[in-house]
Write a structure and sequence with these properties.
Elements lengths: L4 E6 L9 E6 L8 H10 L1 H14 L7 E5 L7 E6 L10 H18 L4 E4 L11 H18 L6 E6 L2 H11 L2
Parallel strand pairs: 1-6, 2-4, 2-5, 5-6
Antiparallel strand pairs: 3-4
Helix pairs in contact: 3-4, 4-5
The structure holds ligand AR6.
Ligand AR6 binds next to strand 2 and helix 1.
């Protein structure tokens, strides 16, 4: 935590000037809609090519885990692809899997000695995770990760695309 700034902004993650942006991907790593589609569109074909190499090596990416690729044409040098849980009511390990997405993304960024990372609101679109609950899990997971260890990360940005998430994050963060 010492020295790491946590920020909330409203907008499009593909234009963030950070070392890595996180993608809310699916297990296939082959792209999709929502933020995944936006990242692949803006970043260009190098990202998909890198995802295919990872698939060839390890298969897809299970929920809760994360992998890193080039950022292609994005301002960000890297994309960290993580797979959020599909919401099934909350008793099928969804909070733990969602927290793992944030922790594993921060771990990978730290391993690469990155200093700044931007997260979308993982699982709160197509995957149906209730936004308030997801925001609480996200902020708690990031805070505890940063408190528990030394890390290269100096800036964590939560990029909220919709007004509801933006409001929720600001409320929780300023409590
Ligand atoms: N920048 C930041 N956030 C965005 C952007 C953007 N350009 N576009 C959408 N969001 P979703 P999920 C927000 O559905 O729920 C994909 O098809 C959006 O408002 O992108 O984790 C994948 O391939 C929402 O709050 O991801 C998977 O199949 C948040 O991003 C599946 O969707 C997440 O919404 C993953 O579903």
């Amino acid at each position: 935590m010492k020295g790491t700034a946590i920020e909330v902004v409203k907008g499009d993650i593909t234009i963030q000037k950070v070392d890595a942006v996180v993608n809310a991907a699916n297990s296939s790593l082959l792209g999709g809609g929502g933020v995944d589609g936006a990242i692949h569109r803006a970043g260009g074909p190098a990202i998909l090519a890198a995802c295919k190499e990872i698939r060839a090596r390890q298969g897809g990416c299970p929920a809760g885990e994360a992998v890193i690729t080039t950022g292609g044409n994005l301002p960000a040098k890297y994309v960290i692809h993580t797979v959020g849980p599909v919401w099934h009511g909350g008793r099928e390990g969804e909070p733990e899997l969602l927290a793992s997405c944030y922790r594993n993304s921060l771990r990978i960024a730290s391993e690469q000695q990155l200093q700044s990372i931007a997260f979308p609101n993982i699982s709160t679109g197509v995957y149906g995770y209730p936004k308030q609950k997801a925001a609480e899990v996200a902020l708690q997971a990031v805070n505890s990760y940063l408190q528990e260890r030394e890390t290269s990360i100096k800036q964590v940005v939560f990029v909220c695309f919709d007004e509801e998430n933006y409001r929720l994050y600001r409320t929780i963060l300023h409590k």
